Amino acid sequence: MDDQQRSVVNRLKTARGHVNGIITIVENDAYCPDVMKQLSAVQGLLEGASRLMLRRHLETCVVKAMQEGRTAEIVDELMETLKFDKHVFRPPQVRDGGELDPEGTHHG
């Protein structure tokens, strides 16, 4: 397992722990904004894992396919995969200082 895979697995395990905790607090009738905050944290972990997997795919499979002359095929595959990810095609977030945030998170 390489570093990227390990990082994805760690994020997924953390998300799993968060989900188990969310289930518990919902069952105990937690305050709705507290549940929503925890759900947002899990979504962030999953989005981060997805970005890492995309990076890994680009650095490995896409590079190999392009070297083999399968550019159109790999581009079609990526477009098909990414069309379901609303975060990939959203406008970039802007930091308070006007800088673009490459991770799509708001700082400030």
Key words describing this protein structure:
mainly alpha, 68% helix, elongated, disordered C terminus
SSE run: HHH
Mean pLDDT: 84
The number of distinct β-strands equals 0
The end-to-end span amounts to 36 Å
Overall shape: it is elongated
Helix percent reads: 55-70%
How many H/I helical runs?
3
Task: Give the DSSP E fraction (strand runs of 2 or more residues).
Answer: under 5%
Please summarize the sheet with the most strands: none
Q: Which structural class do you get from the secondary structure elements? A: mainly alpha
Radius of gyration: 17 Å
Low confidence ranges: 101-108
How would you sum up this structure in a few lines?
This protein is mostly helical and 108 residues long. It has helices at residues 3-27, 32-67, 71-82.
SSE order and pairing:
Layout: H1 3-27, H2 32-67, H3 71-82
Helix pairs in contact: 1-2, 2-3
Task: Give a description of the structure.
Pfam families: Trns_repr_metal. It comes from Pseudonocardia oceani. The chain has helices at residues 3-27, 32-67, 71-82. The chain has 108 residues and is an all-alpha fold. It is elongated, with a radius of gyration of 17 Å. The model is unreliable at 101-108 (pLDDT under 50).
